[in-house]
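From the methods appendix. Each design record in this collection lists the tokenized structure first, followed by the designed amino acid sequence. Records were kept in a plain field format so they could be parsed without special tools. The example shown here is representative of the layout used throughout.

RECORD:
FOLD TOKENS (166 positions):
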């Protein structure tokens, strides 16, 4: 090691030691509230819940009815750019998965302003699907637009990862 590398290594070690002393670490960070939905976003959250309930029933027509025609769905690095494209490519598979593997919400936040709302949900799915064990943490963001007196889903962004917790 040359002198500059030794100096940088010592500085990095000192910084890490300083941070370890200066930043207390709780044994377990406090969990945010499970539900943090503003009152104005409550009806939009109900639309999100109705969408998932329709998927769990396998009612793709009811789920589709909650999407705008120009809905944009992101999942697993892919995009469906309309309700029709989603219905053709992925809606049936999402319904089958939702029927087979139960999901649990761990945290949810949301708000609305004017005719737009957002609902962000963290959760976990666990069960068996097509002969394989499923144990995934999930993140979902939905953007909704008020259409008349109802809320419709304009955008869905889903992501998930294998859970490290049994």
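DESIGN:
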């Amino acid at each position: 090691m040359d002198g500059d590398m030794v100096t940088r290594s010592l500085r990095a070690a000192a910084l890490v030691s300083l941070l370890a002393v200066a930043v207390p670490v709780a044994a377990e960070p406090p969990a945010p509230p499970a539900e943090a939905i503003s009152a104005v976003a409550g009806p939009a959250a109900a639309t999100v819940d109705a969408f998932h309930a329709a998927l769990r029933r396998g009612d793709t027509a009811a789920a589709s009815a909650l999407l705008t025609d120009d809905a944009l769905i992101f999942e697993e690095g892919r995009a469906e750019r309309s309700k029709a494209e989603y219905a053709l490519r992925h809606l049936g598979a999402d319904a089958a998965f939702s029927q087979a593997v139960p999901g649990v919400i761990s945290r949810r936040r949301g708000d609305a302003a004017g005719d737009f709302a957002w609902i962000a949900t963290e959760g976990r799915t666990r069960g068996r699907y097509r002969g394989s064990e499923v144990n995934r943490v999930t993140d979902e963001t939905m953007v909704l637009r008020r259409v008349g007196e109802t809320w419709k889903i304009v955008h869905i962004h889903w992501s998930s990862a294998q859970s490290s917790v049994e």
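APPENDIX NOTE: The first helix runs from residue 3 to 22.
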